[in-house]
Predict the 3D structure of the following.
Amino acid sequence: MAHQFTSGVFLTTPAWHGIGKVIREPLSPGEAIKQAGLDWKVTKQSICREGSKKGDTKPISDYKAIVREDTDEVFAIRHKSYQVFQNWEAFKWLEEFIERGDLIIDAAICLAGGKQIAITCKIMVEPAEVISGDLIEPYLLFKNDHSGNGSIGFILTPVRVVCRNTLSMAVGRDDFEGNVQLDKKNFRIKHIGNVSAKAEEAKDLIDLQKRCFNDGMDVYRKMAKYNLPRHKFEDYLKQVFSAQFKEKQKVCLERSLPEPSIWDLQVVKNVIDHYNKTCEEMPAIEGTLYSAVQAVSGAITHSKHHQAVQSQLFGRGKSIMEKSLIQAISVMKI
């Protein structure tokens, strides 16, 4: 069942809505992988092509099939130099950070039939407040990719306590005042590298993410003070969803239909619903840039579509949330 959440375990209430099994005690990476049913192997297997004669086959020596062993599903075809990282191997280096109390595992998640695996960890620092009562907790999402298109790495993912919305941090090198570094050095291990060697680099980077989280919260606090009236909110959404809007305009032009309104897009309607809900729950942020960013993240995070979790972690949803934050910072520059 491709592109669906397939299994997971959670320490408490999961940040990723309505999926997985809640557990009551902290786990090591290996235990989390096992309890989530992710302790299967991925192997590289030889592949062949048809020969010139009927029934004849010839090996393709330079390429291998990346295969999930227990289901026999072929995840990808990659060059023979491609290195497979088993799930327990990809996350084993986290043990040091968990043992010294820097991180605690919150979830182990399997997506797309196992092509993408994620472990989310809460960074053990005090939550931050954007406005009074709106607490944000910092998470790191560690990923292993078996699709052949990704790498081992991690992403800083803040989560709002009150409703479990995820927020974006990857917005570029500088904020609107030029003094907050949000998009710190990325941690990635390509599938031709060495996990142990790169783990040393991660030590400093995790400390860096803590500072990045605090810097990012300062930016969100400035958004909570920045006035964005309702008519400017529409312009903001047009910029965030410009690609989809232009695509719909093109279709209407080709079919001689009236030019569409941005409000015709279902995803934007969902954003408006979340904007109204957010402002009802937190009247103090109504009419601010922060409420606009919250509305986008709420629509993406709470989507009922079966691809929603994969989208907000790795795909289109993640890109939209990042664009939402980039656009908000751009608005504050004007």
Observations:
- Confidence is low (pLDDT under 50) at residues 1-7, 171-185.
- The two ends are 46 Å apart (CA to CA).
- Residues 249 and 259 are 6 Å apart (CA to CA).
